[in-house]
Amino acid sequence: MPQPGLMMNRPLLISGILEHAAAQFGDQEVVSRETHGPLHRCTYADVARRARQLANALQQMGLKAGSAVGSIAWNNHRHLEAYYAVSGSGMVMHTCNPRLHPQQLIYIINHAEDEVVLFDATFAPLVQGIAAHCPNVRAWVCLADAAHTPAIEGVANVRNYEDLIAPHGSSFDWPELDETTGAALCYTSGTTGNPKGVLYSHRAIVMNATSACMPDVLGLSTQETVLPVVPMFHINAWCIPYAALLSGTRLVLPGPKLDGASLYELMASEEVTISAGVPTIWMGLIQHAEANGLRFPSMKRTCVGGSAMPMALIAKFMDVYGVEVRHGWGMTETTAVATMSNLSRTDRRKPAAEQHAIVARQGKVVSGIEIKVVDENGATLPRDGTSQGELMVRGQWIVERYFKTDRTALVDGWFPTGDIATIDADGVMTIRDRTKDVIKSGGEWISSIDLENAAIAHPAVAMAAVIGVKHPKWDERPLLFVVLKPGQALEKQEILDFLATRVAKWWVPEDVVFLESLPVGGTGKVQKNELRQKYGGVFAA
Amino acid sequence: MPQPGLMMNRPLLISGILEHAAAQFGDQEVVSRETHGPLHRCTYADVARRARQLANALQQMGLKAGSAVGSIAWNNHRHLEAYYAVSGSGMVMHTCNPRLHPQQLIYIINHAEDEVVLFDATFAPLVQGIAAHCPNVRAWVCLADAAHTPAIEGVANVRNYEDLIAPHGSSFDWPELDETTGAALCYTSGTTGNPKGVLYSHRAIVMNATSACMPDVLGLSTQETVLPVVPMFHINAWCIPYAALLSGTRLVLPGPKLDGASLYELMASEEVTISAGVPTIWMGLIQHAEANGLRFPSMKRTCVGGSAMPMALIAKFMDVYGVEVRHGWGMTETTAVATMSNLSRTDRRKPAAEQHAIVARQGKVVSGIEIKVVDENGATLPRDGTSQGELMVRGQWIVERYFKTDRTALVDGWFPTGDIATIDADGVMTIRDRTKDVIKSGGEWISSIDLENAAIAHPAVAMAAVIGVKHPKWDERPLLFVVLKPGQALEKQEILDFLATRVAKWWVPEDVVFLESLPVGGTGKVQKNELRQKYGGVFAA
Description:
The structure is a homodimer.
Chain A: H1 14-24, E1 29-33, E2 39-43, H2 44-60, E3 68-72, H3 77-88, E4 92-95, H4 102-112, E5 114-119, H5 124-130, E6 139-142, E7 158-160, H6 161-165, E8 182-187, E9 197-201, H7 202-212, E10 225-228, H8 240-247, E11 250-253, H9 260-269, E12 274-277, H10 279-292, E13 301-304, H11 311-320, E14 324-329, E15 339-340, H12 352-360, E16 364-365, E17 369-374, E18 389-395, E19 415-423, E20 429-434, E21 439-441, E22 444-446, H13 448-456, E23 461-471, E24 475-484, H14 492-500, E25 511-515, H15 528-535
Helix pairs in contact in A: 1-2, 1-3, 1-8, 2-3, 7-8, 9-10, 11-12
């Protein structure tokens, strides 16, 4: 019989992170872009004080532990305060992706039973469109003062954040919750069916935030200034809003201005050292820097996730600008980052191109997480870097079941990610495709992602997408969609010849379709289902 | 009603750390000094393989989950393997301090009910003296191969580690334990009464090891090489044996050779970047470096704890050698480090002397821990940097009750540390004294530690200790003990005059006693009880 340990039983709580920051890093700065433009400066002591005011305000409005509070908001200091006030008081912080279709927004606000929705003025038209369909929402609170809160025609219960919290005291006794209590809720942007909610626990978030501070993950500390471009409305902005306070890291929040020029200005003026975002954002930033002959003197590293970072972009960051790139992987179902690429000490002595290839992979698991790849029968595949199978994940911050479902989402205790991946002998994971996007051709798999990356390496190509199309002989064959860069021209045969030098011969697409644009969904991903519906017929034999 | 989170429930287990290291950092190196002299090199994959072999061997010997395994051993790779094999299989790793009195060793081995004791050959004479009094121990296993295992007269059941594990397979199914299961046991070296055991849980150790990797704590990563001089027989070597594997940090274990010359040689040849130990160790190291004109090119920082680091030593490390110093605080009851000093970005722009004073403090709490100071009635004192009171601690890795007691060790949910401390507005904690050592003079407190630090700043003084002695008018007055450096002479009045320029007038000791040596106990601390017994009479009025 194991002996029980004799240690204190203290819960891991989000309120603990806030009070830790207030007590130890009270004068650490938070710089936040207001929705109406100017920069706002405050400290962690201010954030804690105002979060307690908001907790009092929500309580007075009749919200209770278990109540849900929605947000449709940018990364800013009021959204940050809400993260702590809502979860800290045992309520559920439901972050909504404003890029969802209004019908989906209505669905998730009602499904989550949001009683209050916080929103930024940017989204007033959105609120106007959905408010009448969300009967449970008692108040729509604009994250602004009275002067910057628009009247919304037809929506009576609009309040402003500053007037809401002003009358309330700045002390609040955070409840000592069970650490498995639900703290935050985020819905997947499912391309088919209704979005599915993931209800993160306090424990999952605190564990992820702690691991995220480790030097080989984000490396947050009192010495750094972090700029999360990853949105607070999507997988908790990689838990940076928690990890920054936990570690005392100076925090810069970009608000609505995510174009290259605005981000560059913010990074430079605030001497940002670490950032995190999706490849598109970094593309815009680099274009701005190149066009204006700018450098990144304070930046140490940029962490990227959401989709694959083009190799050329990695090379520019690392070789031209001296900014380290790390590639992360996570999904709504994994709270935040689950794996992160990194250069080991020996890797750092390798040629530049090899280093780029290493950080372009999705990397090793963060401590607290385990992964494996399995074949179609669920058998574990070898960690040889070439055996592809579905990526399975388990650990401290992985979903068990979706919100308001009573059936586990797991298979034998592991969450099936729907990603096709390989793992090598050092534990380095590489995403090869989505299970639903992978192309089965003649009994073998073709990775749509690998084909897209190969196509995008062509200097005339701006965007590329590949789907599988039924084929009488090979079961499926790849069909390539290409969006050209402005002013560029390209023949079908040219791009096929280009690909033939880069991929196996039987991977070369069956056909190419040139488009003006690709359909992109709420989280910035190409909606291949739309392409399949329109172009997914049958190839001639 | 709070909503339950819907995340996986995965336990935090020590076996998880081992398999994480094997899967991701399998070829990371462990360099270990053998007890008989040479360096031994292996990898985390080897450690995992051999830990599983040991787990099989212990199981075959009849040990079960809950069984205790003792160790009397240096920091070396076999001891490391045992840390994982024993705790990983649900048994209790009971690390014994070889500097305890043999009677105390017998007491703790019997009290813990150790069924096997692992020992290094250095301690063969100790084993010979105690074995007959430890009837529950089935085997005394020397951490060596057959060639380096001494026969011990009168002890029949001596085995050697290599022959013990050799026949066993290297796969082992680690049990999926509850994370609150007891994993490791360490006894305090109480100066009065019997030692008291602290039974650490898997959760406490994994949480501490994770936080210890954070950049502002130890800052462990795949980029670093860490040398724990802090012994594995005492508060888990600050959990570095866990944190190193968790983070993939290269590990250098010094075995029995802890003198300045040996440590220097190891640090230099293995390019150590981070180290941790008590001030005495660093004193020996610096003396060796100074005498031989050596530098520390690879060292980034040294972390110190156990007792106060003299300011002169801090200055040498930081200003002469460019090695950052961090001061930690913890005790047997806190698993490992609970607070750590650090220079903030603004601190780094301050004059050198101010920086030394900052890192000489015990610092801020590590995320997962809370502290407060209370007066004699238990009321919380202000965080003003001057209000002194007993330091109370609670959090993820703090004891709740001592081993085999049924009474909580807590007061209102907090562990009373017996240390007198202040906390400032930034949360920085400074240990001022032990409650039992503080001197109550005329209704005010005099810190024996502050007086000792002031005395040790005199160039002729090698060691100093202060106790309170009864006084008819003032209740207590300080009595100073001084050990001079070799070849130095000093008059009573000289040291008193020296102190009068450094402390408040009423702090100046009533008398001075010059000694050849001070009594030092098992964990390297001066045994003030012995001084009190011999010198603690009553001062004349």
